[in-house]
Design goal:
Layout: H1 10-27, H2 31-54, H3 59-90, H4 95-113, H5 120-132, H6 134-140, H7 145-174, H8 179-198, H9 204-216, H10 223-243
Length: 245
C-alpha cells in the first residue's frame, strides 16, 4: 500500500485549521476569503510531497514515492498559487497583511530546506506561519488590518506555548527535570499574566493547557491524548474569539 502524502505533523492541522475556522466564525466569509483559505490549505497539503521530493523523508521514500509526490506537487502547488492569488485580486486590502504573514512562511521554507523544521525554532516558526494564514482571510472577509494582526498574534502566542510544552514533555521523557524546566514554567506563568492583562482571550485556553503540561509533565507515551486536549483548547479559543470579537 503506497504511503500517504498527507502532512504527518498532526499538530500542524490544528494550527492551520483553528485560526481559519475562527476567522470565518468571527468575521464571516466572502469569495475572496474562501479562495485565500483554499490556497493556504492546498499549500499545506503540498508540504509532504515537497519533503519527499527533497529527500527529507529518507532515500527510500524518495525512490519509492518520489514520482507520485512530484505529480501531486505539480498539481497542488499551482492550484494553491492560483487560488491564493485570485483571492488577493478580489480583495486587494488583504495584500498588505498577506505580505506580512508571508515572512514566517518564507523562513519555514528555508528551515525545511536545511532539515531544521522539526527543531524547537522550526516548530515555533511553523506555528506563526500556519496561524498567519487566517490573517489575510479575515481581512478579505471585512476585518481591519489591526484586528487581523492582533488575532494572529494571539494564535501565534497560544501555539508557541503548546510547542514549548510538548517539547519539554518529550525531553522529560528522555531525562530527569532540570533547572531549564523550572525556568520555562516561571517564564510561562509570567507570560500568561501578560497575555491575560492584554486581553488576548484567544490564547488563554492554549496557554493554560501548556502550563498544565509543564507543571504535570505527563509521559510522552500520552502524546496522542495531549494532542486531543490541545485540539479541545483550540476549539475553546475559537469560541472565545467569537464571543469577545
Amino acid at each position: 500500500m503506497p504511503r500517504s502524502l498527507l502532512p504527518r505533523e498532526h499538530g500542524a492541522y490544528a494550527q492551520l485549521a483553528a485560526p481559519l475556522v475562527g476567522a470565518f466564525v468571527t468575521v464571516g466569509a466572502s469569495l475572496a476569503s474562501a479562495l485565500i483559505a483554499v490556497g493556504a490549505c492546498l499549500a499545506f497539503v503540498a508540504n509532504e510531497s515537497l519533503l519527499v521530493v527533497l529527500g527529507h523523508r529518507g532515500k527510500r521514500a524518495k525512490a519509492d514515492d518520489g514520482p507520485r509526490a512530484r505529480r501531486w506537487l505539480a498539481v497542488l502547488a499551482p492550484a494553491a498559487a492560483i487560488a491564493g492569488l485570485a483571492g488577493l485580486v478580489l480583495a486587494p486590502s488583504a495584500i498588505a497583511v498577506a505580505a506580512i504573514v508571508a515572512a514566517p512562511a518564507c523562513i519555514l521554507v528555508v528551515l525545511a530546506w536545511r532539515r531544521q523544521e522539526r527543531t524547537l525554532a522550526g516548530e515555533l516558526v511553523a506555528a506563526a506561519a500556519l496561524s498567519g494564514a487566517a490573517a489575510p482571510v479575515a481581512v478579505a472577509a471585512g476585518a481591519s488590518l489591526h484586528h487581523a494582526l492582533w488575532v494572529w498574534a494571539a494564535w501565534t502566542i497560544g501555539y508557541a506555548f503548546t510547542v514549548v510544552a510538548v517539547h519539554r514533555v518529550i525531553e522529560r521523557h528522555r531525562s530527569a527535570a532540570t533547572v531549564v524546566d523550572a525556568i520555562v514554567i516561571v517564564v510561562a506563568i509570567v507570560s500568561a499574566g501578560v497575555v491575560a492583562y492584554t486581553g488576548m482571550v484567544i490564547a488563554m485556553p492554549l496557554v493554560a493547557c501548556s502550563i498544565a503540561l509543564l507543571v504535570v509533565a505527563p509521559s510522552a507515551k500520552h502524546l496522542r491524548a495531549i494532542g486531543f486536549v490541545l485540539v479541545g483548547a483550540s476549539l475553546l479559543s475559537i469560541a472565545l474569539g467569537a464571543r469577545f470579537a
